[in-house]
Amino acid sequence: MTTVLQTFNLTKRFGGLVATNDVSIKVERGARQALIGPNGAGKTTLINLLTGVLSATSGRIELEGEDVTRLPVHARARRGLVRTFQINQLFAEMTPAESLAVAISEREGKGWRCLRPLGKRGEIMDECAALMEQCNLLDVKDRKTAVLPYGKQRLLEIALALAAKPRVLLLDEPVAGVPDGERREILNTVGALPEDVTILLIEHDMDLVFSFANRISVLVNGGLFVEGTNAEIARDPRVKAVYLGEEVVEGYHD
Ligand SMILES: Nc1ncnc2c1ncn2[C@@H]1O[C@H](COP(=O)(O)OP(=O)(O)OP(=O)(O)O)[C@@H](O)[C@H]1O
User: Fold this and answer.
1) In a 3-state reduction of DSSP, which class is residue 247?
2) What is the ipTM of this complex?
3) Which superfamily does CATH assign the domain made up of 1-80+166-254 to?
4) From the CA of 44, how far away is ligand 1's center (Å)?
């Protein structure tokens, strides 16, 4: 197996608080890996370190063997390390079709010219349509993002991340805040993501974690507490203990 993303003794301090404590994790190519942990465990901080939103106090991050620890967000994204991001403010006035056309066009270095009937517009529109189909957005493609159901907005976040052609996709709580009736579409879309895209999922929803991931890393107090297959994590009494009786891994069966 090839390691795509790896951290070496990664540490982040905020004053006296150690939010990420000496974390060394490996993500293999094609993995479906989940990052879980109780509130305040350091999940968001770790993701922000991986994407470059935060800079590490010490330690190293490698993407496909290349040291990216000091690279800015956009340079890591260009190398294929992409996260879902909150669209609510960014693209509120645009339709999914327009936002995706812009995202694809930006990736191709063509800026906003895609909105004019010029050049490779046809190819961009084809890719746009394919992404909307993949992410269940065709039925809302011409509606303003601001008025879309929340589940569709989260799907658009995934589609926009896919438009960047990620090699590693960091999915940040894709069903957080989504009403029950809209979750299935997201679970299906996430479940059908292309196999060649490596995925690290941060999630509180254990149904999604156990149905989607094949490897789980548990963070506690900023440190990597335990890592293993779904079955190993589900039966590990230490994991149950750190969640202090929350209904976390009870529902999982081999
Ligand atoms: N910018 C910051 N300044 C100071 N402390 C911070 C900052 N960001 C995070 N922390 C602290 O770092 C610790 C880890 O926070 P983080 O948000 O990474 O945890 P989390 O696992 O994502 O939590 P949750 O599941 O609640 O989102 C917490 O104690 C938090 O208060």
Assistant:
1) coil
2) 0.97
3) P-loop containing nucleotide triphosphate hydrolases (3.40.50.300)
4) 7
